[in-house]
Amino acid sequence: MLGERIVFNGLNSEKMFSSETVPLPELAPGEILVKVRLASICMSDVHTTTGQRVEPTPSVLGHEAVVEVIAHRRPESDLMKGDRLTFSIADSCTKCEFCLKGLSQKCTKLFKYGHAKLSDGSGFNGCYASHIIIRSGTHVVKIPNIISDRCAAPINCSLATVMCAMEFVPKIKNGRAFVQGDGMLGLYTSVVLHELGYETVYCSGNHIQRSQFITRFGAVPLYNDRRINYEILIEETNKIDVVVEVCGVSNVVNDGIKLLKPGGLYLFLGMVHPHSDLHITGEQIIRKCLMIKGIHNYAPRHLDQAVDFLVKTIDKYPYEEVVGPTYDLSDLQNAIKIATEKTYARVLVKPNMK
Amino acid sequence: MIVSRILIRSFKQKYSHICRTLCSAQKSNATTHTEKTYPISGTRTVFNGINSQTMFAPQTALIPELTPGEILVKVRLASICMSDVHTIRGQRIEPTPSVLGHEAIVEVVTHRRPESDLAVGDRLTFSIADSCGQCEFCLTGLNQKCIKLFKYGHAKLSDGSGYNGCYATHIILRRGTHVVKIPEIISDRCAAPINCSLATAMCAMEYVPKAKNGRAFVQGDGMLGLYTCAALREHGFERVYCSGTRLQRSKFIEHFGGIPLYNDEILEEETNKIDVVVEVCGVSNVVNDGLRLLKPGGVYLFVGMVHPHSQLNITGEQIIRKCLTIKGIHNYAPRHLDQAVQFLEKTFKKYPYEELIGPTYDLSDLSQAMQISIEKRYGRVLVKPNVLTS
User: Fold this and answer.
1) Contacts of A26 (CB under 8 A, 6+ apart)
2) In this complex, do B279 and A272 lie within 8 Å of one another by their Cβ atoms?
3) How close, in Å, is residue A148 to chain B by CA atoms?
């Protein structure tokens, strides 16, 4: 059986992406051969193709997808051919100190789909491909029928990461939150905080077309209209219980710190790149007894929670509508370009559409 | 009785010794704890600001009657916290005029807390923060951020009686101030720094996870640093490194359970291996080193940088990629004062607390005492008022 994958050769190579068709290897114990039903383009991949992030090359990018079981070697599981699955970005050992204390994403033997060299294992390591070989240390979760492919694709990076962040958010009576960023992470964060019982959730961003979605995801949209933002900032100074940075831009952090009330919590999710200098003082953090928590990826339990959350709320929020058009795998470069424009929260990629 | 008390109170200070004699000669029928020999006046050292002609000026003032919930205490021994040193050097701004000093062991003279078990003569430590007990911060255990916060040693002279700081003969403890009795085993010298330094360390410890074979790094070897070393060791941490610039005090680090690091020892081999880093030196340029040392999922406690010259030179990426927690610790809540006294009592013979404390100066020598503090030769420099009234 053959599989196709789009190899990323690096920014400075003649052909940034090139297609490759190779035989699929036999499975080792614990592995699962899946076909990619639908992949979505995470902003971190956009950053890789614009040079803001460096990934090993050559490699197969793409780490968000809903997949389907073709064959597997997990006899102890209840997996069946045809099952739709989401899977953990991180393949982890379960035995090191990090796995044992629930921080599997920092496993000493960590492997990440979409972030691994082509020469690592079978090379079917990323979602911009027809197939993926899921390794023995990778947690998988079945996708219930009620969740469409379009809604399922972003679960295993964006939504699961938000679930990880939520683990640190206290349930607060009449809680007030401020979400900095209106991408997929921002929309998911808004809706989860809303479901958690937060009374007022602000969501700020740069994409005015998202404002109607923000409202429908339970938050109050704030746009790059300086005057309105300024008024809200003044009014809510020292009153916000939780601020969540999900825009990847470090200059929002000073505002976030001003908004937080004493004892408040700041979650950092987006700034996973070196151009994230913070211009804050230790005094600001100390005087307000603030907590800052860095969230990077997630652990297996958060994937379970993500699927549960989506099942519970699929009819309540317009998840389907925030996801954009689907491109054929061979049009990956074009799809990434559309993703860069940020018109849609997610752009999708499907192998063998033609 | 009432008439004579009014008469007595109408005398000014120059007759005070006559009044005192009259007062103590009186045998009051209503011998409740509030009516024993009440001191008419006390002395406090007023801070006038660094640019004034006399930065510190002694002032003798009447001690008013107590209102419900208040405690009149005399200061047995006060200690000079580094933050007061920063105030007189202009690195911190406090309201002026004011009475500085917020660390002291005190003794009950009289009180109006009938529901308590306080007795005249009790040695007490007391919370720096006077809090309301009812606002959202008090109710969530963050009393130090009470919306009606009052802080001893940080209040204007005109606030209340003005007996608001420890560089004085007396303090009037307000009704929202938590107090804890000092067990006999703890000497005055060791008790004085409890209510800022040690209690703050206890608050910080609340955020330290129990880590099997845990490793910690304490950045700073002043009073906070040494208390933190001991507390981490008692918490079960296997290895506690302690860095600092006070070379002459580094021997104490070992006595307090720490592994001293000298000068610019980089500790390369512990990169990504430290569970908890605690900044207690007030200097922001140590933070990058702390971030490097922390293992994924680690905790960084910021305690010392309570001043504006604490610019951090770090990225969001550093915090995110290692899934770090940074927690700011400012002052503490009432429970931490209890924990501080319990901790000191439990470990009093185990660690050389007495040796950390330096010389005692008379209250009238406060400026000199501050000078010695600046030199950072001792964990603490003490100040003792000459108590003129009993």
Assistant:
1) none
2) no
3) 31
